[in-house]
Design a protein that fits this description.
The complex is a heterodimer of chains A (383) and B (465). Chain A is mostly helical and 383 residues long. Chain A has 14 helices and three strands.
Chain lengths: 383, 465
């Protein structure tokens, strides 16, 4: 699931193209095409067009790399469009949420089991350098998935649309995923999750999201604390302890320097950037740190976006986020139907955006897909 | 085809969430769709086919690229050529093919290799390693100007990568451009995980090529990096004491934490060369930097840490000791004469030891009268040859080195003061104050017992005393 190899995103691309053709076929049989009036689709299409032009006009520093990124973006864009066009009812929305929760559950369960049996190997057999967790080669990307999915479970609990006898299972799911997130030891992931909890609490209070939340809090906290105690908290606490000295942490200092160098990169090509996907090729010329390693990503998706797509790309993403959050807050504030689930999706999106300040989750195909699924839940028109 | 954009109607809102019944948002139109009716069948067919063709083209291209990647994993000429045929814009395939062709003995393959390297750099001009391999290929083909240009491009593409800098530096060395080579060596040395052997190779190459210490220090050796100590010790090994001192002065001590042990080789080299004044200056710098509390340069006592209140540095003008299997040295905070602790030396009775392993070098003035004082305590020291202090002239021949020796300590005794006086010779600059125990010549010769020493001092004594 956390795969970044070509076979992974090629299969997603081919699948999404096929689904798109099926949708188109169905539409044409009916004699009409119904395009969802989803405001985020326009900036998404504009961004895709920008990258395509970078490839075709060869303004990209390495057109082949930009082409690969365009294919991945196309897959995500198609998924966003199809979900916007096809999620029409509350039941369909719940199906999508259910699928997300299933993915989250499997990944969390696998992650916890793997960390106690064969840490360092994905699916118990594939050795991976670095810090794998669950199906991901990097614990920070696993945390990214959990950040997006955990709020969905809270949202579903608060929605009142799930029968009471299913609530214990939802709580178990939430506790399991929270425990997996903490156990992964991803500092940025844990911080983003804390931010999510605060934001969710603010939402509950400000828009009077639900009055059902109070009984769940002590239950979840108790179970969560018990799970962590049982799983073993010491290595995690030691990892979180390092946040105290983050200012002098060499990894943090290095990322700060990289971000500064990336902004210098942006200043060289400020309008359209060097081309999506070209960071790894171009950055070495701007790297001020003597380093035997190789920076494939800036570990900050925002500065990397600026450097690769310039102000045009940043404007597209800015518009995308503006429309998304405007739609989301409108729905949460006004719409009665499914607003708890929408809140969960919004919180999940926000958590990942916070995490993107220190990582590159949106470059992991699985996480990018889940992100766009959440976007569709928030922004897709309701019938 | 008619484009119709129907407006939705407001519906009554009901909710099962919460106690409030929020109103539906004005912008939240239940029929939020753009409906495009396409009644004409031929138009539907054309549209569908067009999009199917486009989607097929994209999907097919993606699958071909995946297949090409699989082919390229087995890097044979045939596979790589096929991969390039399917995906000509992937620079890496051209680069790998060039490397495979380079391994061939055929001249035509060599020419093709150069062409493939050129293709790789055209497709991706930002990869330093592509330029380096192209430079190497040009160099072999004796196209030196083009090789030089390729090396410059490599350096521009990745100026901070030590591996790139190493290759660029070696190219510059081969072609006599030493100044540029030294600049690249600096990058090599600045890598945080620099291999010590690589560091030695850089020093050796830079030294052999230039023999210019100042140039190397200015262009290669970062003043705020531990690498500077490595270079200093490299020069010492070559017997280049003046250059090593110059390297020491190049080091920015205020920005670089040091351990005393990295400086001791320089110190010992100065002592060995009879350059005692410089050794003293070096010692002052080291102890000031380390904030070695027990050294006071205004103190009349020339012995450093005579009360053993600080940890032993084991070098410089501090105490030095060589571990000996049958002798145990440790600080004793219970039995001390002055201060908080003394040094205890325990003999285990297993060996007839010739002990000379604990000593201190002390700078002195020639033709001067000195008094050495100290306190000793003994517990059941056996044999006829007991431990005692000896003071020798470090630079005198061994037969004439001894300046004064104390009485051997045997048996048990409480704290007793020892006092030894001596006069330095006309050439004496450094004395060696050592605790010694010569081997015994008797049958009962395996020394056992414990000795404590504390409050040692050496002071110049005016002639009137």
């Amino acid at each position: 699931m956390g795969a970044v190899q070509k076979w992974a995103y090629t299969s997603v691309l081919v699948g999404s193209l096929l689904l798109f053709l099926v949708w188109l076929f169905g539409s044409l049989i009916e004699g009409r095409i119904e395009l969802p009036r989803n405001p985020v689709l326009v900036p998404t299409a504009a961004f895709g067009l920008l990258v395509l032009l970078q490839v075709l006009l060869r303004t990209s520093a390495y057109p082949y790399a930009s082409w690969q990124e365009w294919l991945k973006f196309l897959a995500c864009g198609l998924v966003l469009f199809l979900l916007s066009a096809c999620i029409r009812s509350r039941e369909e929305r719940r199906l999508v949420v259910g699928a997300l929760l299933l993915v989250g559950f499997l990944a969390a369960f696998m992650g916890i089991l793997q960390s106690f049996t064969v840490p360092g190997k994905v699916y118990w057999v594939i050795p991976v350098e670095g810090t794998p967790f669950g199906p991901y080669g990097n614990r920070n990307h696993f945390a990214g998935l959990m950040e997006m999915v955990i709020p969905m479970s809270f949202g579903l609990l608060l929605s009142g649309s799930v029968r009471r006898e299913h609530h214990p299972f939802l709580i178990f799911l939430a506790v399991l995923m929270c425990s997996a997130l903490i156990l992964s030891g991803s500092r940025a992931g844990i911080l983003a999750f804390v931010f999510e909890l605060i934001f969710f609490a603010v939402l509950i209070v400000m828009v009077r999201l639900s009055d059902r939340w109070l009984p769940y809090v002590p239950i979840i906290l108790l179970l969560f604390g018990g799970a962590l105690y049982w799983l073993g908290l010491h290595p995690v606490l030691a990892r979180v302890e390092t946040l105290k000295g983050i200012g002098t942490d060499p990894s943090y200092q290095s990322r700060l320097a990289t971000a500064r160098d990336t902004l210098r990169m942006f200043q060289t090509h400020p309008i359209v950037g060097f081309g999506l996907g070209t960071y790894a090729e171009v950055f070495p010329a701007y790297n001020s740190q003597v380093d035997e390693g190789h920076w494939v990503h800036a570990h900050n998706d925002y500065v990397e976006l600026l450097a690769e797509t310039g102000l045009f790309g940043a404007a597209c993403v800015g518009a995308f986020l503006w429309f998304l959050f405007r739609r989301g807050f409108q729905r949460v504030s006004h719409t009665s139907r499914g607003r708890s689930v929408i809140s969960g999706a919004l919180v999940g999106i926000l958590g990942l955006l916070v995490h993107s300040l220190a990582d590159f989750n949106l470059h992991i195909p699985a996480n990018a897909l889940v992100f766009f699924v959440l976007v569709s839940l928030v922004s897709a028109p309701e019938s | 085809m008619v484009l119709s954009i129907p407006r939705g109607t407001q519906t009554a809102s009901t909710t099962s969430e919460g106690t409030t019944r929020p109103q539906q948002s004005p912008g939240d139109d239940p029929q939020d769709w753009i409906v495009i009716p396409i009644r004409s069948l031929p138009l539907r067919l054309v549209l569908f086919l067009a999009i199917v063709l486009l989607a097929s083209w994209i999907g097919r291209k993606a699958i071909r690229e995946l297949a090409a990647e699989r082919l390229a994993q087995t890097a044979t000429i045939k596979n790589l050529q096929e991969a390039i045929r399917r995906v000509p814009s992937n620079a890496e395939y051209h680069h790998v093919l060039a490397q495979v062709l380079e391994g061939s003995m055929e001249e035509t393959d060599w020419k093709r290799a150069v062409a493939e390297y050129e293709s790789a750099t055209k497709l991706n001009p930002h990869n330093a390693f592509y330029w380096l391999t192209l430079a190497r290929a040009y160099e072999v083909a004796e196209r030196i100007d083009e090789a030089r240009h390729a090396v410059e491009r490599a350096s521009q593409a990745d100026p901070s990568q030590p591996l790139v800098a190493w290759q660029v530096a070696n190219f510059q060395v081969r072609h006599g451009n030493w100044e540029e080579a030294l600049r690249q060596f600096r990058v090599v040395l600045s890598g945080s995980r620099t291999d010590p052997q690589l560091g030695q190779a850089v020093f050796d190459l830079a030294w052999r090529g230039t023999q210019n210490n100042r140039m190397i220090l200015n262009l290669v050796i970062p003043s705020n990096s531990p690498v500077a100590f490595g270079y200093m010790n490299f020069l010492l090994e070559k017997g280049r004491l003046d250059e090593a001192l110059e390297a020491w002065h190049h080091i920015a001590l205020d920005r670089l934490g040091i351990r005393a042990s990295v400086v001791f080789p320089l110190f010992d080299a100065l002592i060995k060369a009879h350059r005692v004044d410089e050794a003293e200056q070096l010692w002052k710098q080291v102890v000031t930097q380390l904030q070695f509390a027990d050294v006071s340069f205004n103190n009349r006592n020339l012995i450093v840490d005579g009360s053993f209140e600080s940890d032993i540095l084991n070098g410089g003008f501090d105490w030095r000791f060589t571990p000996e299997e049958h002798v145990e040295l440790q600080f004793d905070s219970i039995a001390s004469h002055g201060g908080t602790r003394s040094l205890s030396i325990a003999f285990d009775g297993q060996e007839n030891i010739d002990y000379n392993h604990l000593f201190q070098l002390v700078p002195v003035q020639p033709d001067t009268h000195y008094r050495f004082r100290g306190w000793m305590r003994a517990e059941q020291i056996t044999t006829d040859s007991g431990p005692h202090f000896e003071i020798t002239d470090l630079y005198a021949p061994s037969t004439a080195a001894l300046l004064v020796a104390g009485e051997p300590v045997i048996g048990s005794s409480n704290w007793q003061e020892i006092s030894l006086e001596f006069r330095t010779g006309a050439e004496t600059r450094v004395v060696r104050i050592a605790l010694v125990r010569p081997a015994s010549h008797k049958i009962d010769n395996k020394i056992q017992g414990r000795l404590w020493i504390d409050d040692l001092s050496l002071q110049a004594v005016p002639l009137t005393e």
